[in-house]
Design goal:
mainly alpha; single chain; elongated; 2 domains
């Protein structure tokens, strides 16, 4: 048995009842250190979609990694404008 969700309160992580219910709590504590919120940007979904699409093409071998990043950059620049 495991916790259905990870509590935001660190005190809960240390509770004996938590350790009994979820023996993997120590692993989850280590993993949560690397968790970051997604960027807040009005075009984030489109930016993310472009990156996913082009990186997938590179992983399939249809384009090189450099081409994938270049093509994604072009699409992103069209969405938000260059620096």
């Amino acid at each position: 048995m495991h916790l259905d969700e990870m509590s935001v309160w660190k005190e809960v992580w240390l509770a004996e009842a938590t350790r009994i219910k979820d023996p993997d709590i120590d692993l989850k504590k280590k993993q949560i250190i690397g968790v970051y919120n997604r960027p807040i940007h009005p075009q984030y979904r489109k930016i993310s979609s472009s990156l996913q699409t082009w990186l997938h093409q590179a992983l399939l071998g249809k384009v090189t990694a450099a081409e994938a990043l270049h093509n994604a950059q072009i699409e992103i620049d069209q969405l938000i404008g260059p620096d």
